[in-house]
Amino acid sequence: MVWLCLREARPIVLVVFLARFAVGALGAGPGDRLGQLPWGQIALGALAWFCVTASAYLLNGVMDLPEDRANGSRRPLASGALPARAARWAIAAATSAALLLSLSDLGLFLCVGTGLFLGWAYSAPPLSAKRRSWSSSVTVIVMGLCTYGAGAQAAGGEPRPGFWLYAVVMSAWMGLVGAIAKDLGDIPGDREGGRRTLAVVRGEKAARTVTAVCAPAVALAFVAGALVYDPPLLAAAVVLAGGAGWISWLCQHPASGRERAPYRAFMVSQYVTHLVIAAVLLLSLLTG
Predict the structure, then answer these.
(1) What count of other Cβ atoms lies within 10 Å of the Cβ of residue 234?
(2) Which of 134, 158, 154 is nearest to 146 (CA)?
(3) CA 287, CA 258: separation in Å to the nearest integer?
């Protein structure tokens, strides 16, 4: 049952949230050496944030059951392998664990509380931010900033140069690219569930066009910011720009059965970009 809950919470997403937390911690620790980071506090914070993310995505799975079934999802809840009652118990356990694990640091506790609230606001009534593209994007962007902030708080809360650059850009990447690209493969279920996403209201072509424009715009902002504020991050910005070009091409060349391709490209791009950001930050800490 635990494994089914983890599958429903989408391991690929859980890991990328931990990657965001990690680069937040690497970019905001005390001192300028790797050994000066409070690794115990960072590990505790990472576990708390894992629970926040798991809670949010399990709640999303419970609330999205009709739409997921209409979209042909094979995740445990939609397929019936995971009972909704068990998922609700897991949500309660993950929420409690997240709060308890963050009690030792007020700043981290506030980040965790905000993250749990955003997870509820995204999926559950009366807010249900997921129902509209603009509210979904805003919630996702704030959740991204909260994730980087939680990592920074766990590490000591002393942001280095470039921290806010990648935190803001990669949060915008989540909200302006990923949140819209995700809807491209969910149009039938979203329409059945009464959602008013861009893809439902304006059509798939409009959603593809917005994604194709937003992806390079966010990437170019990263390139420009890196050139001006933190040249070492230029490598990560170039990687993101490559991913943006890939996403734009996929959006402009749709094919039957490939509706989720832009979202997959978004996920791959952010994974690789975070790896490069982490490498840059680790090199800086190793060399002092």
Answers:
(1) 15
(2) 154
(3) 44
pLDDT digits (tens, 9 = 90+) for 269-284: 999 999 999 999 999 8
pLDDT at residue 174 greater than cutoff 90: yes
Count the alpha carbons within 13 Å of 27 in the hemisphere toward its beta carbon: 28
Query: Structure pTM?
Result: 0.95
Distance CA 194, CA 74 (A): 21
Structure token pair of residue 57: 């995505």
End-to-end alpha-carbon separation of the chain, Å?
Answer: 46
Any idea which residue has 């990328």 for tokens?
A: 16
- 288, pLDDT greater than 70: no
The tokens for 31 are 């001192």
**Nearby residues of 39 by Cβ (< 8 Å), 6 or more positions away:** none
CA 15, distance to chain mean position in Å, is 10
User: Would you state the torsion angle of the CA atoms of residues 237, 159, 136, 199, taken in this order, to the nearest 10 degrees?
Assistant: 0
C-alpha–C-alpha distance, residues 193 and 276, integer Å: 39
Q: Which residue pairs from 134-137 have beta carbons closer than 8 angstroms and sit at least 24 positions apart in sequence?
A: 136/175, 136/179, 136/197, 137/175, 137/176, 137/179, 137/180
Sign for the pseudo-dihedral over CA of 56, 62, 68, 70: negative
Cβ neighbours of residue 214 closer than 8 Å, sequence gap 6 or more? 176, 177, 180
